[in-house]
Amino acid sequence: MKKWWVAAISAVVLIALGATVYFLSSDHGETASQKSVSANVQKTKTDDSAAEFVDSVKEAYEKNDYTVIYQSLSSTVTKNLTLEQFLQSKPEGLTVEDIKDNGKESVKEDGSFKVLKKPIRMKITQNGQTKTINTNWVFVLENGQWKFVGSDE
After folding, report:
1. Taking the CB of residue 95, how many other CB atoms lie within 10 A of it?
2. CATH number of 32-151
3. Which run of H or E residues covers position 76?
4. Domain boundaries, the chain
5. pLDDT (tens digit, 9 = 90+) per residue, 51-94?
């Protein structure tokens, strides 16, 4: 007879949880044009933050600041790689001389995450040898922030 209150409290908690989820996921009466404006504002914020983040990674490479580069990496890259290991993995005598955009970036949604690819041209010097590399840098939107995954080179 005493267990009825457990069932009653559980039912109230489940109803409250369901109402909260519904409220958070509903459109709250937005019109189609309001939704479109909201989506465009969010897209612009995402695009702006992506461009700023790409620029910060380029700047870190130009300064050869591998600590900042490590801090910009995705958690999928850093989960099994310490800063010390990352710094040791840098090829001996490698210097980034110049980085330029090499085309328009593309952003694709893949299920629950966004992937940005940015064409980059890098001029690097290693042990006195200079060469230019054309590559695509890959970024992911991770917990609302862009993170660097690496390159396809």
Report:
1. 13
2. 3.10.450.100
3. helix 75-78
4. 32-151
5. 999 999 999 999 989 999 999 999 999 999 999 999 998 888 88
